[in-house]
Amino acid sequence: MKPRSAMTLVWCAFLWACGGQQEAVDEQPTSLEALDPQGQKVVFWYQHTGQREDALQELIADFNQTNRYGIEVRGEYMGRYGDIYNKMNVGIQSGSLAASLVVAYQNQAWAYYQADGIVDIAPYMDSPQWGLSPQERSDYVQAFLAQDNIGGVQVGFPPNRSMELLYYNADWLRELGYDEPPATWDDFAAMCRRAKEQPFSKNENPARSLGFLLDVDASRFAAMVFSRGGDLADATGTAYALDSPEVKAVLELLQELARDGAMDIAGEQDVEVNEFVTGQILFSQDSSSGLPFYKSGIEDSGLAFEWGVTHPPQTGSKPVVDVYGASVSICAGTPEKQLAAWLFLKWFTAPEQQARWVRASNYFPVRKSTARELESYFAENPHYGVAFGMLDYGKSEPTMAGYERVRRLIREAMIEAIEGGDIEQAVKELQRAANQTVEP
Questions:
Q1: 381: phi then psi, degrees, rounded to nearest 5
Q2: Is the Cβ–Cβ distance between 314 and 320 less than 8 Å?
Q3: For residue 164, what is the enclosing H or E element?
Q4: Nearest to residue 262, comparing CAs of 427, 421, 418?
């Protein structure tokens, strides 16, 4: 599908929403600047729960009370990312999609766009009346905007981002004879093996002493590959590169550490957090959004040990971190409803709202000027400040529509390697199966 002009886009979306009866109607362009979003009702599908959902609902309520167009946004929890993806596909295929805004990773959003379920946001961003001023546009982290731009189409708009971090027990490292976290993966492996042999002095269950507990996840894997100078896709971004030396090196390291008993697989959700805060594992690789849980967990455990976060060990000359996060896409609907949805997105990503969202979610903001609103938050959460300072090292995972299936294939290859399987064969099969998901 090729990108459409702003005027054609809003008219085609209207036709789609009315049942797709395009054959008997000529395309008559509707000017985006002439639209009136007054009184529109917008449904926002999201995955947030707990404190984040409470904060999001408060922000939505504030928008509903203060926007001058009488736009009413209703936020609806629709399950986890996979649940939302399935519900979106059903709604698009049946022509009964109820959402106006939807949380989506880039590969998911691209699949929706190819199925005419969402629209290109670029015309709204560029609109003289409704869009972003040059000053506002430059205030966004450009790499975040670029993550959602696929083939010139802005399939999503970023409300926040996270990154993969290496969490480490600084006190335990000192007991093992190290002053710093690992700079290289060889250092990491040596530290993990030492941790197996020498439990942390504050560990109340020294029979359980590991260097690393791994949540088998494609983003964990991507971070390790990126840190070695590799990638999951080729230079064109249209095919996978999962048979590379960097991919093999990651699987070999995991297999060796598992064979030596220096690492284990996290069998339950959040178990790596629980074992880290109780001093049973030296390292945990996890999302930056988990920082509050590590902090509160250590405080609640009563162990009071010093800990830190850093980027994964590196092979190259400078760090590379996996920066990721779901964005929000505008679903195909009437032109007025699409505009109303955009106005909420624009409001939500303004610095004042971004600062509120950061404090509730611990995500990274997408507007650079938000940092001025967060000085006290940085002071209260120094580990967040360390992670925030690494955003310039960010690299993105693939945006191909079939990446959701490839993530499952990566997890299967990781487990096969950790359990002692043939790595050459696993990588060969991973590459073959992954590229079968790429549409010709």
A1: -130, 75
A2: yes
A3: strand 162-169
A4: 418
| In contact, 327 and 47? CB cutoff 8 Å | no
Q: Which residue has the tokens 């959602």?
A: 148
DSSP H helical ranges for 118-184 = 122-126, 134-139, 142-147, 170-175
Which residues, in sequence order, are bridge partners of residue 165?
286
Over range 112-138, report the average pLDDT.
97
Q: Note whether 419 and 240 are within 8 A (CB).
A: no
Beta-strand ranges (E) seen in 271-404 are 281-287, 307-310, 321-324, 327-330, 394-395
Cβ distance 171 to 306 under 8 Å? yes
Question: Residue 66: CB partners within 8 Å, gap ≥ 6?
Answer: none
Say how far apart CA 175 and CA 191 lie, in whole Å: 11
pLDDT digits (tens, 9 = 90+) for 375-396: 999 999 999 999 999 998 999 9
Q: What is the mean pLDDT of residues 17-38?
A: 60
Contact 127, 349 (CB under 8 A): no
Task: Write the DSSP symbol of residue 115.
Answer: T
Q: Please answer whether residues 325 and 160 qualify as being in contact, where contact means their C-beta atoms are separated by less than 8 angstroms.
A: yes
Residue 27 in 3-state DSSP? coil
Report d(CA 25, CA 4) in Å as an integer: 18
Provide the pairing of β-strand 307-310 with 162-169.
antiparallel
Give the DSSP letter of residue 168.
E
* 329, 101 Cβ separation under 8 angstroms: yes
Can you give the pLDDT at residue 11? 42
Work out the burial of residue 192: count CB atoms within 10 Å of its CB; fewer than 13 is exposed, 13-18 middle, 19 or more buried: buried
Find, among 319, 302, 333, 295, the residue nearest to 37 by Cα.
333
**Phi, psi at 85, each rounded to 5°:** -60, -45
d(CA 415, CA 413): 5
Q: Are 262 and 210 in contact (CB under 8 A)?
A: yes
Per-residue pLDDT at 180 exceeds 60: yes
Q: Are strands 263-265 and 307-310 parallel, antiparallel or unpaired?
A: unpaired
Phi-psi region of 390 (alpha: psi -120 to 50; beta: other; left: phi over 0): alpha
Identify the residue with better confidence: 326 or 25. 326
| Mean pLDDT, residues 107-115 | 95
Sorted by sequence, the CB contacts under 8 Å of residue 94 that are 6+ apart come out as none
- What's the angle, vertex CA 192, arms to CA 188 and CA 194, rounded to 5? 120
